[in-house]
Design brief:
The protein is built from eleven helices and twelve strands. With 240 residues, the chain is of the alpha/beta class. Strands 1-4-5-6-7-10-11-12 form an eight-stranded parallel beta barrel, surrounded by seven helices. Helix 1 (32-41) runs parallel beside helix 3 (63-72). 44% of the residues are buried.
């Protein structure tokens, strides 16, 4: 299983939100690049970098952080937050991102997202599928659509999407365990999808259960920053 630590950025600093609520913000580090270097030194190969300012502004804001991390480490950075235009996605790749995650854009402008799939290929795009009660949630989870989660993923998988990050909003930031049954159902319904679990991881036991479920990868955020899972424990799961 691929372990993918998350660095969420507000004002250039490394933070975590609870259930996407900007008023429930906790700052963990003022230098995200140093945090990224620690992950790299532990043998971790990937990073999920989220521009929370960009998500709010609907355009990339924290360009310097993305560029610095990509230049200072060999981490394979997947970048999301505010990528809403052809200019944004080109900018993210030019600054060093290896993959870009699109969530709201895949709902609000499917033609543009499908165009990116054709232009950049399924290896470079990740579908962000965030769900509230199995319905797709967008715009920093402030808006819940009527789109069924599994139908949404199935449709884009048929169009060439290989990687999907699925966050159960009800679990995010609460350290109450991941949505194992939901992930198992997605993989059963959509064979071949590279599913990346996100939200709820609180312990090594959660990681062991996710690995046993067959998910491609797991994003880890608050559990690491709150000291519940060590870097050594994270690196023990990383694919060679």
């Amino acid at each position: 299983m691929e372990i993918i630590p998350a660095i969420d950025i507000i004002g250039g600093n490394c933070v975590r939100l609870t259930q996407g609520d900007y008023s429930q913000k906790k700052e963990y580090a003022s230098d995200p690049t140093e945090v990224a270097k620690r992950f790299e030194d532990a043998g971790i190969k990937r990073l999920h970098l989220v521009d929370l300012d960009g998500a709010k502004a609907k355009k990339i804001i924290n360009t310097e952080v993305l560029e610095r991390i990509c230049q200072a480490t060999s981490l394979k950075v997947d970048f999301g937050g505010g990528v809403q235009s052809d200019e944004d996605i080109a900018l993210a790749f030019s600054l060093g991102a290896k993959q870009v995650t699109g969530g709201s854009i895949a709902v609000k402008n499917p033609d543009m997202f499908t165009g990116w799939l054709k232009s950049f290929g399924g290896e470079k795009l990740i579908l962000g599928a965030d769900a509230k009660d199995r319905k797709i949630a967008i715009s920093g989870w402030e808006e819940t659509t009527e789109m069924d989660l599994i139908d949404f993923i199935k449709d884009y998988h048929a169009k060439g999407v290989q990687y999907v990050i699925c966050t159960d909003v009800a679990k995010d930031g609460l350290l109450q365990g991941p949505s194992l049954e939901l992930y198992k159902e997605i993989m059963k319904e959509i064979p071949g999808v590279k599913l990346i679990a996100s939200g709820g991881v609180a312990s090594v036991k959660d990681l062991e259960e996710l690995e046993a479920s067959g998910v491609y990868g797991t994003i880890v955020g608050k559990a690491y920053y709150e000291g519940r899972i060590s870097l050594e424990e994270l690196s023990s799961f990383t694919r060679n």
